[in-house]
Amino acid sequence: MTKIHVRDFDFFYGASKVLHGISMDMPDKQVTALIGPSGCGKSTFLRSINRMNDIIPDARHDGLIEIDGKNVYGGGTDAVELRRRVGMVFQKSNPFPKSIFDNVAYGLKIGGMRNRRQLNEIVEKSLTRAALWDEVKDRLQTSAFALSGGQQQRLCIARALAVDPEILLMDEPASALDPIATAKIEELIYELKDNFTIVIVTHNMQQAARVSDRTAFFMLGKLVEYSETKTIFMNPKQKMTEDYVTGRFG
Amino acid sequence: MTRRSSDDRFFRLATGAVAALVLLIVIGIGFELTRQSTMSIRKFGFSFWTGTTWDPVSGDFGARPFIWGTLYSSVLALLLAAPVALGIAIYISELSPRMLRQPLAYLTELLAAIPSIVYGLWGVFVLVPIIRKLELATPDFLKKIPLFKGPPLGVGMLAAAVILAIMVVPFTSSVAREILKNVPSAQREAAYALGATRWEAIKVAVGYGKSGIIGAIMLGFGRALGETMAVTMVIGNNPQVSASLYAPQYTMSAVIANEFTEAADELYLHALIEIGLLLFIITIGVNMISRLLIWSMKARANRKAISMPMLADEAVPA
Ligand SMILES: Nc1ncnc2c1ncn2[C@@H]1O[C@H](COP(=O)(O)OP(=O)(O)O)[C@@H](O)[C@H]1O
Ligand SMILES: [Mg+2]
To answer: Residues near B29 by Cβ (< 8 Å), separated by ≥ 6?
Structure first.
């Protein structure tokens, strides 16, 4: 079943057009990987899905993005409400200068949840889902900045999970981490896809191959090829895709 | 040795020497103030801090009313200025249209460039009459509260606090603005991505810069402590320890400015200089604390390996 439906999507920063007629359907409860050389528009595309680009002045778009058949940019969609349904994890972990607990509880609190018991419950559940609970359960009140890089990134994932989104957008979530921390994040993604639709941008070919069900290859703002991850890596239709996945250019 | 590396060394030495010189000057001032007030320090000891009489004729000096006046007026100014300054900083850095940002920032900084005496004149001719009207209109039930007791003179603590607040706002708001500008946009994005409204994202940014903003406010406090001219003109210059906003009071810098030239005997002069010494100590203390706060915020930002090219303390004029 299609969760995210994109048709003829263009994107502009001022006068420069960075996405050209993107069309693709991302299935529900699967992992879709976006790959391609840096600067090809992967982040811009990802940020269009939860309207994070709204806050950039002079940016504009054309075309259609639908989630569950509903136009993301339509009059009936509130960006604030949309972002609660479509969580995001950034390349660099960006915890708030608050305690571990308050980081995870932030989205719940701005959503109006005050009940302490409920908060405790969801914070624990989210940290468990993010595979961080055992490491932090005895120090929930300490600063998030005291965690290691990999732990901070998992904290940011827990923070995103706490508001119970349907979709999780991840922009190179492991690119700043060491191999062990990266492996943990990948494992986590594998587990999360039972409950979430995940779109992940990655630089790392092996990572895309390991974690994703479908892969989209972007180049210079265009979607070159999109299909089953196996096909993209074993049997790509386009020469350009083959060159890229075999590392012939970077 | 190549020419360039010797140039380098020279430059390092020269700037190092200047830095050392600044430190020496500060220590020198402290030393000189102490030396020039020994007579008063010996005679009154710690009771100089607490004594309430200021009687040049009988040679009895206590600085409490001046210390009180300085701290009280500055704290009041701080309470008035902090929310306004923060509001201006938030408006300029987060809410105003991009095109207006530079001009608005420039305008607030322009306010800081107006000489203190001009504020004083404005205070005497505009502010004091307004405050007098306000005092006259005070309802009776309020007059029973110590805060509003006293004759409606216009000049007094309230006028001083208001004028100090106006003078401190541009400075504090420009430092606060600089701090908000340096909050990593990743913080705001994190908030937005969790479904924050614009206002909630601003709260996150302010929270991130909290210690720096407190530092900015404290720096403003430091300025208010030392401000002389405008306050002297509107505070009423009457040494008394009073909680009343309407009472004419006195500040440390004002008494030095007013009485220095008429201090005929040596003890009188030493007492005035000792007030200068106290003011010196208080301001340095306040400044050190506020720098520390700004510095801790910067250190935190660096630890997060987020680039913060220029934080407030480079932006602060000496
Ligand atoms: N905020 C912005 N303003 C202007 N141009 C931008 C902005 N963000 C990205 N770009 C440009 O858009 C293009 C695509 O960038 P991006 O989506 O970040 O690519 P990727 O994530 O694939 O590396 C690049 O040429 C980049 O320079
Ligand atoms: Mg990117």
So the answer is: B280
Residue A218 alpha carbon, nearest atom of ligand 1: 22
List of residues 6+ apart from B69 with CB closer than 8 A: B157, B235, B239, B249, B250, B251, B252, B254
CA dihedral A207, A209, A215, A220 (to 10 degrees): 60
- Name the residue ranges covered by the structural domains of chain B: 65-265
Residue B205 token pair: 């940014």
Per-residue pLDDT of A172-192, as tens digits, reads 999 888 888 899 899 999 999
Kindly report the protein residue whose alpha carbon is nearest to atom 18 of ligand 1. Answer: A43
**ipTM value for the complex:** 0.93
Conformational region of residue A36, where left means phi above 0, alpha means psi within -120 to 50, and beta covers everything else: left
Instruction: Determine which of A172-176, B123-127, B140-144, B199-203 has the lowest per-residue pLDDT on average.
Output: B140-144
Tell whether B187 lies on the interface with A, counting CB pairs under 8 A.
yes
Within A69-216, where are the H helices?
Answer: 79-85, 100-110, 116-129, 133-136, 149-162, 179-192, 205-211
Look up residue A214 and give its amino acid.
Answer: R
Using a CB-CB cut-off of 8 Å, the residues of chain B touching A110 are: 191, 194-197, 200
Q: At B303, is the pLDDT very low, low, confident or very high (cuts 50, 70, 90)?
A: low
**pTM for the predicted model, two decimal places:** 0.83
Query: Looking at ligand 1, which atom is closest to the CA of residue A14?
Result: 4
Q: Encode burial over B142-171: b for 16+ CB neighbours within 10 A, e otherwise.
A: eeeeeebbbebbbbbbbbbbbbbbbbbbbb
Contact B187 A94 (CB under 8 A): yes
Average pLDDT over residues B11-31: 91
Residue A196's alpha-carbon distances to A6, A188, B13, B278, in angstroms, are 18, 12, 61, 65
Residues in contact with ligand 1 (CB, 6 Å cut-off) = A 13, 18, 36, 38-44, 56
Q: Which residues of B touch A123 (CB under 8 A)?
A: none
pLDDT digits 0-9 by tens, B57-110: 998 999 999 999 999 999 999 999 999 999 999 999 989 988 999 999 999 888
Q: What CA–CA distance (Å, rounded) separates B159 from B80?
A: 12
Q: Give whole-number Cα distances, B43 to B40, B255, B267, in Å.
A: 5, 20, 9
Nearest chain B residue to A165 by CA distance is B194
Euclidean distance between CA atoms B193 and A129, whole angstroms: 19
Fold of B65-265: MetI-like fold (1.10.3720)
